[in-house]
Amino acid sequence: MENKNNISRRDFLKKLGATAVATSVVASACSDNKSKEETFANIPKGKMTYRKNTSTGDKVSLLGYGMMRLPVINAENDKVGGSARESEVPIDQDMVNKLVDKAIEYGVNYFDTSPAYCKGKSEHATGIALSRHKRSEYFIATKLSNFSPATWTRKASLEMYHNSFKELQVDYIDYMLLHGVGMGNGLEEFRQRYIDNGVLDFLLEERKKGKIRNLGFSYHGDIKVFDYLLENHDKYHWDFVQIQMNYVDWKYAKLINERNTNADYLYSELEKRNISVVIMEPLLGGRLVHVADKIAEQMKKREPESSIASWAFRFLGSYPLVMTSLSGMTYMEHLQDNLKTHCPLKPLNNEEMQFLADVAKQIVELQTIPCNECQYCMPCPYGLDIPNIFSYYNKCINEGNLAESATDNNYRKQRKAFLVGYSRKVPKERQANMCTSCKECLSHCPQRINIPAEMQKIDQHVERLKKYSTHF
């Protein structure tokens, strides 16, 4: 019988009738995975920080809600059991409703989704939750996520577009994005997705009719596409642009991967044209929450009452053209912490900016794998759990438990902890040694990670640890 995981990404996307299963949206704002509501009594109402859209004047909450990581029902006990990214488990609509209600109560008004999120279920769940509120209380952002060649035709792209209205239960969309421009073959793929089929011209007409209030794009990948779209700003009149920006990517994105672009360049180009900026990956898929222990100690020493995540959001809020920063808040604790930071947000002073610059340098020097757990690489045709493998490896680096040399005093303890933890975190049949270097994943990674090379490195590390069996 054929392994259900042994399919190409293209076939997988066709089955979805859409595209990739996730994007660059941000990760959880804190690490506590409880589902119960915590008190919000210490968060003042009516104090949310807002920014004005430079194009349409919309008053947008600086904290945006990313609807990619939605809570799911644990089939065993009917309780919330994680987040719906690749999960087949049903979304917990009741919890989604509660989260949205609480967010709106405290002033959040920007909700970002996509036809591709949560295996195509995010727009539907978002529509149910938001339709219970007055339409004037929220802005909906969604995307034309036509990644798959099967959706590059005008007919397929417009079907996706019109279906978003149905799923979201709206007759106009506040913020519509061309999704993931710059991915794949860069300009060539962009033209096939949006220009040659007349889809971008259609969206421009829809904006004129008021069906789209703001038109923009989310950028990943080839800088030539980003530059091309901004060079043609006079033609397209972008109302906003979504970029990956955080205090590490500000100066080090290109150093981490030479094919990436530093966020300071992206922001400065938008600043020249006075275009409002929407931020994705403010926490780098959670990597700016789960920082190395020694870095976390430095942050806590300076701000004992603040979370590690708050530093990242305050960095972004210190830039005036940042209209909103998207956070995927699966649990009430995530929402609570983010509201505490944004109600109101306190921008960083010059000294704090320098401190974060120093922190960014330390993070880069640790040489963790720059995976944001966006799931673009999944499913692997050979069944690897790519994001989970990288997540575990990075965790060991941050905790100083990589067990690199048999001469280290703590080698035996670290070695045992790594191997036992690895087996628990990633099933044997989904570990790095299963990688065949088929390279199916390479064109789908927004961070442009050489995934097969990293898998080989991790597998070699595991094999070295196994070799020293006498050290147990």
Defining traits:
472 residues; alpha/beta; eight-stranded parallel beta barrel; 17 helices; 12 strands; globular
Helical fraction: 25-40%
The SSE string, one letter per element, is HEEEEEHEHEHEHHEHHEHHEHHEHHHHH
What characterizes the major β-sheet?
A: 8 strands, parallel, barrel
Radius of gyration: 22 Å
Mean pLDDT: 86
Number of helices: 17
DSSP strand content: 5-15%
Quaternary form: single chain
Unreliable segments of 5+ consecutive residues: 1-38, 75-80
Instruction: Give the distance, in angstroms, between the N- and C-terminal Cα atoms.
Output: 39 Å
Total count of strands:
12
Structural class: alpha/beta
* Overall geometry: globular
Strand order of the largest sheet: 3-6-7-8-9-10-11-12
Q: How would you describe this protein?
A:
The protein has 17 helices and twelve strands. The strands form three sheets. Strands 3-6-7-8-9-10-11-12 form an eight-stranded parallel β-barrel, surrounded by six helices. The chain is globular, with a radius of gyration of 22 Å. The two termini are 39 Å apart. The longest helix has 17 residues. It has 472 residues and is α/β, with parallel strands linked by helices. Helix 2 crosses helix 3 and helix 3 packs parallel to helix 4.
